[in-house]
Structure formats: C-alpha cells, structure tokens
Amino acid sequence: MIQMLKLLVGVFIAAVLAACGGGGGSSGTTPGGGTSAQPTITLELQTAAGASTTVVNNITTVSARATVRNSSGTPIAGQVVTFTQEGGLARFVPAGGTALTDANGVATVQILPASSTSAGAGTLKAETVVGTATVSTSLSFSVPLGSSDTATSRVTNFALLLDRSTLPNSGASTVKLTVVAVDANNNVVPGATVTVATDANTVYVPGGTVTNAQGEFTGTISIGSDKNDRAVTVTVTVNGIVKQTSFQIVGSQLELTMSPPVLAQGAASTVTARLTDSAGSPITGKTVSFSGDIASINGRSGNTDATGTVVLSFTAPAVAGSYIVRAAASGITKQTSAQVGASNVIPNAVIPFGAVPSLAASPNVLAPNTSGSTASQSQLRFLALTAANEPIPNVRVRFFITSTGLGSTDSTISTGTSTVYTNASGVATAAFIPGSTGSPTDGITITACYDDKDFVAPGCGPRPPVTARLTIAAQALAVSIGNDNLLTKGDGTYIKQFVVTVADAAGRAVPNALVDISLDITHYGKGLFAQSHSFLEPTLDPEGYVPNKTITPADYGSRVSCINEDRNRNGFVDAGDNTNTSRDSFGQETLEPRRSDIILSYVAGNTTNASGILLIKVEYSQRYATWLHYRIRGTTNVAGSQGSVERSFITSYVIGDDEAGGSFLTAPYGASSCNSPN
Questions:
Q1: Which tens digits make up the pLDDT trace of 328-337?
Q2: Buried b (16+ CB within 10 A) or exposed e, 534-555
C-alpha cells in the first residue's frame, strides 16, 4: 500500500513538472517536445550618471528602467510598462508609475522615497503584456535613513529672471528677481531652498524662504545707499546648481562749467562739476577726479558738497588753444573743451576743400528737466575732419536751437551764443539743456555754424551749417487698445482680453504708467437672434435711435438698436430715462441695459510693465452675447501730460455655442420696439 502511494505521488509530481515546463516561468512546447521562446523584461535602477544602484534617495536622481524584448530578443517600442513597489517606501514620477518603451525598448520612471520618514527595504516590480503573454520581473531596493523627500534635492534646473535690465539710481525702484525651479521631468518643485547673493553694494530682500506651489521664488534688489552707476551681478544657487545674471544701475549726471567761458592765458580760473542722480537730485560726498590737457587740473580731485558740487581753482595754460577737461565720478565720465586765450590769439583754422564737418547729440532722446534743474543734458559734439579723416583744430563753432514750438523755446545751449573752438582732435562740444516741456519726435533741431576765422556777425558765416535732431520725451503721448481676437469661456460668462500700450513721443515704451480704464454701454439690441444687428452710432440726433424709438424689428427687417436709457450714466432713473417703461417685480422703474451687464477689470495691476503694456479684460454673462454695443476708454497721465484712447466693440460668443442652444439665442431685452418693455 505504501509503495503504491509513493508511486502515485511520483506520477503526480512528474505531471506537474511536465505541465510547468520544469519551472522558471510560463513557456510553450514544440512538436518535438522542446520549449518555445517567450518575450522578456529586465529591470534595473540607474543614477543620473548611468551607474547601476539599489539605493533610492533624494541625494541623486534614481530612475527605474525596464527593457522589453520579443521572443527573438529584439527591443519592442511603444510597449506600456507598469511599475509597482511593495513596502510603501517609494513613489514614482509620473505618479501613475506607467511609461512607454522607447525605440530601444526601454521604459523609464523616476523613483523617490515615499516620505520624509521612509527607510528600509522594498521590492520593485515591472510588468507588461506582449500579445497574450504577461511578463514581469522584480528587484530589491533600499531606502537608507536620512533619504527624506527634501524638495531641494529634486531640483535639476531652474529659470532665473529679472523684470528689468536697468535700475535708476534714485527713488525706491527695485529689480524683481524670479526663480522657477524644476525637476528632471521639468515639473515645478515647491518647497525648494534658494540662495541669492548680490554684489556692488546692493540690498536684496527675499520674498519668502522656499519656492511656492508654482515652483517660484521671488525677491527684490535695490540700490542701497550707493548711487554710483555700476553693473550688478546676481548669483542664485539651488541644490548646488549656480546661475548668474546681471543688471545696470544708471542715471548719474555730471555737468562741467568753465569760468570764465574763455580762459585768459595764465590767469586764475575755475572748473565746476555738479553730480546728480537720475531724478536730478544732488549726489553728495562723492569724489570727483579730474584729468585732461591742463596740467594744473590733471590728477586733482574733490568731494561733492550738499548741492553735489565740486569747485576746483586752477591756473589756465600760458599757451592759447583748446584743451580737454575730463571729470569722473559715480561711475561716469564727462568731458568738455576749455578755450584759452582771446580769439585773436588763436590761429585761424585751415579747412581744406572736401572737409567733412558733422554734429551729433548724445543721447538724442532725453527727459525734460524739472523747474530749476539742469540734470538732463545731451552732449553736442561737433567734429571737423579732412577728406582724409584728419582732425581740423581751431575751427570756430557756434551752437543754436533753430527749431520752434514745444521743447524748443524753453531749452538752452550751455555755451549760449559764444564761440567755441575745435581741439587737436577736431572736436568742439557744448551741452543741450532741455526745459520742462516735451517735444514731438525729432522736434528739436540743433544747428552748428562753423568757420575758419572769427565770426563777424551774430549768426552763421558763409559756410553751410550742420544740424542734429533730438527728442525731449517723458510724456505718455500715445495710448492704444488692441485685442487678440480670442474669446474664452468663464463660469457662465464670456471673457475677452485687451492690451493697452503706452508710448512716449519717441515711440519708446513707458513703464509704470498708471492707466485708468472705463467702459460705457452705448446701445442694446432687441429682436430675434436670427436677425442681423443694427448697431450704429447716433449721428445728428444725440437722443436718436437706430432706426427710431417706435419701429419694431419685424417691420425694420433686422434687430433694432436702442440707446442706453441711463442718459447721464448716473445709475438712477431720472426723468425721461426709462424709455421703454419697464418695471421690476417690485414695481420700480428699471433701466436697460444695466451697468453690471458687462464688467471691465485689470488682469494684473493698473500700471504698465517694463514693455509699456497693461492687460485688461471684459467679462459678461453669455446671455448678452451679440446684444450689447460698448466702448472702452483708457487714460494715462505721465509728467503732467494726458494720453487717452477709445474703441468700440460688440459682445460676441464662442463659435459652436449657437448650435448648442446658447442662452443668447433668446433676446435678453425683448423683441419689440425700443419704447416697449418687451
């Protein structure tokens, strides 16, 4: 009996082994009795450097890589692989733990510790279905203590942005720094620590301690107490990754004045340097260093007083001629010409045939000065060269403002009507000092008269003068409203976005311009949706209607447009306002349309950005689409000058909503005449 039982058990085990192919996974049999080849999947953990590992942490980026091959050993592309793990120690990115194999048959997901307290050993599994065969594999991994899910360690890259490239050296303006941190899959990383360092005596104020939910970290940089023009380097470090960017602090102005304007040979003279910031305020306590052709000035220095001024006494050269005087302070250098000796001592210039005189203004677009200030200036540079590009010294030059109108009448030339002389480099300089009013684009004309000998009359000599043009621009002279032809849906509403742009007289963007916006509903429509609208502006009769108060849409053959019943736009029913005699459920007179039927708002603040752009949006209930005619007005004031713009629009709908039974298919204000409540 026992022998018979052993025999039966042996037969059963042999049958099981035959059915399983001898162990080691499912396989088929061939007619000759052998096993058929099956698809395979292999699995490994790999660091970002490509090294194999069994450790999962946040110190290095670790990926799970599964390779799928068919029965011939060829990689299979486009195969869905599902990764799972036992033990609850890890999580995947993407969170679903699935990935497609690439051309090499490899599917990859990132694997991270599941939480800040994860530690221990677990099992990772990868599985896929090839045809009708399910293949899988697994491996063991560990999460060491201290491998917490710190956000910073997941950062593999970040964007570094500044909202402006220059910062004026006056006022409370700041540069905004924005850092956007992402991981290996370019997903934003919240909670990452960001380290910021700035140089050049600037002050950095962080906007938080770590990146926010959008992976952003912000801060502001100000000039501090140092008003020098200078370059600032910003260094940002996240997870050991270091990036730098820079901006410029600008605005220092240095004005040089020689006294007397024409120096007597060997006589006592003075040079005055006045240093101001971008707002025209004096910069005190700064060292001004002098250099140039005059020995008694070269190498000397002085500190600016409470008015930003340094006065330096010196002895004029004994030899008549034109000399260069330079002054350097606050990161900038200013140069002027000093004329020594009476004109009859200075030799006549030799201006050969074919000489090429020119006049340049730098900058040629500048701000007006506030009353009593001369901080804003443009350097006028007359250059006399021969046809062979050789400088012509001792040319007599006079500078004049020859334009008229805005910006011309209250501006001056630093040398007045005096004659200046080209130096050994063929250069004669003066300063154009704008007044307090702006000008049209290229509205200022500067004329330089020149001759080889002293002028005998107040104006120009016989030689043709040269000119340069400038623009005094600090006012927002142009405002525009545009749209992107895109209508989007809100919660039961339609939203249309508009762009307001503000530019100065030179066409340059005006940043930080405060823009006031308003919306007026001029007309509302009555009739059937299938009828075309008839929105037209009133012409001769400001109280007129299109076509009139009493005609119905059916008689007119189109919708009729009714003027806004709130004629003075005060929101109250005044005498004569309620044209259609409508009343609410309480019997109170009502106005159509309501002011709240369309809402106008700012998208992100009411001032223009660094590009002179402001975004606004109009939002209205979908039931009012096609039934309202409205105007948007934008107004801005800069430096006392007002610019404004106004545009008209008609409410619209998203294509397809008409076929989907949109609420606007029913007239919200009725289908009869303008003087009817229905």
A1: 999 998 888 7
A2: bbeeeeeeeeebbeebebebee
